[in-house]
Amino acid sequence: MLHAGASDITTRFEYQASPRTSQLIAGEGKTLAHNYHPLPVVARRAKAQWVWDVEGKKYLDCLAAYSALNFGHQHPALVRALKRQLRTLSLTSRAVHNDQLGPFAEGLTHLVEQDMVLPMNTGAEAVETAIKIARAWGYRSKGVPANNATIIVADNNFHGRTLGIISFSSDPEARDDFGPYLPGFRSVPYGDAAAVEAAIDDTTVAVLVEPIQGEAGIVIPPASYLPAVREVTARHNVLLIADEIQSGLGRTGATLQVNNVGVHPDMVIMGKALGGGLLPVSAVAGRADVMGVIAPGQHGSTFGGNPLAAAVGKAVVELLQTGRMQANSKKLGVVMGQRLEQMRGLGVVGVRQEGLWAGVDIDPELATGREVAEALVGRGVLTKDTHGSTLRFAPPLMVKEADVHFAMDQLELALQDIQSFRAN
Ligand SMILES: *Cc1c(COP(=O)(O)O)cnc(C)c1O
């Protein structure tokens, strides 16, 4: 292992895409806004856990579109549901009823043990929806004075990119130059239930929290944290809102991560995998008396709850009802966690894992997360860095044990690639 400080690393390990791929990427950059820095791969086709690029090179997908592809690409049952609905009825708006939305709402409430659902499209919209419901509940049910409601959030949260949501982000990249910001939020350290209680006063309507912080690097709080926050919020008549957009729907080996810690929130926010990797589908599910504060005209969405989305969402619920995805995630997550632990010494300095979801800290003296992600592109594995030296692994939940070993073998080899690059 090299012992140079991070600042001594002058040459970056870079994956060299083929001339054709490089040309495609450069061309795209002329007309597409630069709000992402994608890996040098141009995908063309995918099936289950595999992705092929424009040159026919095959990759194991270990990112799964940030968990939007929990069931893999083109899951047959989900594609079938989408195609059937596409031929029948695609969009109505909520101006009339459609025959898909009711059954979807019924299935989803049953799956996540809540009373009512409000369907939206993207994750950020569902978070905004939950915030609006919590504020209205605070004024109409708890008796908070008008325009005074506060919501407690956690430092290093990620709940989306809208103006309301970035107002309580602690990430300067997400926030800077986008003000003025929306008031009414208090941020406290993640994983600290006493800090939550200390921040509660008569204006507090809700605590909004990720059961595991995904974008922050798969940060898993102490097991006692969410049960303690549940107890504190219940005692102070404050709503507990779990953002399960990334942690939910099988990712952590349970239907929801709150199930793993035995907590029942007042509202659960879902997105990403709820659309089965086919469409944007999100929803807020919650207690009847809380969801019930919203009356006709007070909130809505042209596309939210459309028949295509509802048909796919219902098929996703049916997949999860069998428990097979959750069980595979739990079982193979253990394998992945063990393999990662064995890589300490190869350049891995931290591992956080729950089900098939892992945050892997790379020794910053060896490489950035981006460099390892690029080395893995060369080795046929797609993953993504976050926050400097962290890499995340989140393969589709239907992978086989051999796939997990393949990804872990390639990670070992990628770390070795970078070690020998540094040595030369
Ligand atoms: C991705 C994500 C969101 C935002 O979802 P979008 O569909 O990108 O708007 C919100 N919360 C969490 C925890 C997420 O991971």
In short:
This is ornithine aminotransferase. Keywords: Amino-acid biosynthesis, Aminotransferase, Proline biosynthesis, Pyridoxal phosphate, Transferase. With 424 residues, this protein is of the alpha/beta class.
**Rg calculated over all Cα atoms:** 22 Å
CATH topology of the largest domain: Aspartate Aminotransferase, domain 2
Described by the principal axes of the CA atoms, the overall outline is globular
Q: How would you name the CATH homologous superfamily of the largest domain?
A: Type I PLP-dependent aspartate aminotransferase-like (Major domain)
Order of helices and strands: HEEEHHHEHEHHEHEHEHEEHHHEEHEEEH
Ligands in the model, by name, code or SMILES, are: pyridoxal-5'-phosphate
Outline the low-pLDDT stretches.
1-7
Tally of domains: 2
CATH class designation of the largest domain: Alpha Beta
- Main pleated sheet: 7 strands, mixed
Tally of separate helices: 15
- Neighbour order of strands in the largest sheet: 4-10-9-8-7-5-6
Distance between the termini: 13 Å
Classify the oligomer.
Answer: single chain
- Strand share of the residues? 15-25%
Describe this structure in words.
This protein is α/β, with parallel strands linked by helices and 424 residues long. The chain has 2 domains: 6-68 and 325-423, Alpha-Beta Complex (Aspartate Aminotransferase, domain 1), CATH 3.90.1150.10; 76-321, Aspartate Aminotransferase, domain 2, CATH 3.40.640.10. Helices cover 38% and strands 16% of the residues. The protein has 15 helices and 15 strands. The strands form 3 sheets. The chain has a 7-stranded mixed sheet with strand order 4-10-9-8-7-5-6, sandwiched between helices. The chain has a 4-stranded mixed sheet with strand order 1-2-3-13. A 4-stranded antiparallel sheet has the order 11-12-15-14. Helix 3 packs antiparallel against helix 12, helix 4 (101-112) packs parallel to helix 12 (307-321) and helix 8 runs parallel beside helix 9 (225-235). The longest helix is centred in the C-terminal third of the chain and has 23 residues, at 401-423. 49% of the residues are buried. Residues 1-7 have low confidence and may be disordered. Pyridoxal-5'-phosphate (PLP) binds at residues 66, 122-124, 127, 158-160, 210, 214, 243, 245-246, 271-272.
